[in-house]
Design goal:
This protein is α/β, with parallel strands linked by helices. The protein contains 8 helices and 7 strands. The chain has a 5-stranded mixed sheet. A two-stranded antiparallel sheet has the order 1-2. Bound molecules: zinc ion. Zinc ion binds next to helix 4.
């Protein structure tokens, strides 16, 4: 490759690891960036920089926030007796869209996956267990109905149940293997309403 296109190749390398993008998509994105007006491309770079610099995990639920504690954890209107456990911050957005859940959340930032070398110690389990005080009456396992999602829910339930906290699992009307974040609001609402004991 000639020296002068190396920065372009570098840009492709940066985009390629995004889920569902691949080398072809990454090449397209790199050329799109090159076709942008300079100011727009700089805005993109700045948006990434700011998001990474200003956001961090909420001290309580591990969702992303610019403050020490996120808006949901800080809200006096939320029901503190229920914690809904999700794989990623994206899932909180999906459940909030149903407007039916008023409890708190906990983000694990992943699922147990021996194939990918992800074990319990890499996920935010410790932080969840530390939150289980007398106020918490129910923990809802809202991980996706995939092999990893089920395994994670079962693993956590085994740790939580002996503490005397009710542990439930979403009743999915979703095909097994699908992801929570793609579920429509009605399906998610029904899954929440019909949740069962674990
Ligand atoms: Zn929070």
């Amino acid at each position: 490759m000639p020296q002068n296109v190396e920065p372009l190749e570098n840009l492709v390398e940066q985009f390629a690891p995004f889920p569902g993008i691949g080398r072809k998509g990454a090449t397209r994105m790199a050329y799109e960036v090159m076709a942008m007006p300079d100011a727009q491309a700089m805005e993109l770079a700045k948006a990434i920089e700011h998001a990474k610099k200003d956001l961090h995990r909420c001290r309580i639920c591990q969702d992303y926030t610019a403050d020490e504690v996120c808006r949901i954890c800080a809200s006096p209107k939320r029901d503190r007796s229920t914690i809904c456990v999700v794989e990623s911050p994206r899932d909180i957005k999906a459940i909030e869209r149903t407007h039916e859940y008023n409890g708190l959340y906990h983000v694990l930032h992943g699922l147990i996956s021996p194939m990918d070398g992800v074990g319990a110690e890499q996920l935010c389990f410790k932080e969840l267990l530390a939150r289980l005080n007398d106020t918490v009456k129910e923990v809802i396992m809202a991980t996706s109905p995939t092999v990893e999602g089920e395994a994670t829910a079962m693993y956590l339930a085994k740790l939580i149940k002996p503490l005397g906290v009710r542990t439930t699992r979403l009743a999915y009307g979703l095909p097994v293997g699908s992801s929570l974040e793609y579920a429509d609001e009605t399906t998610l609402y029904r899954a929440m309403e019909g949740r069962g004991e674990l």
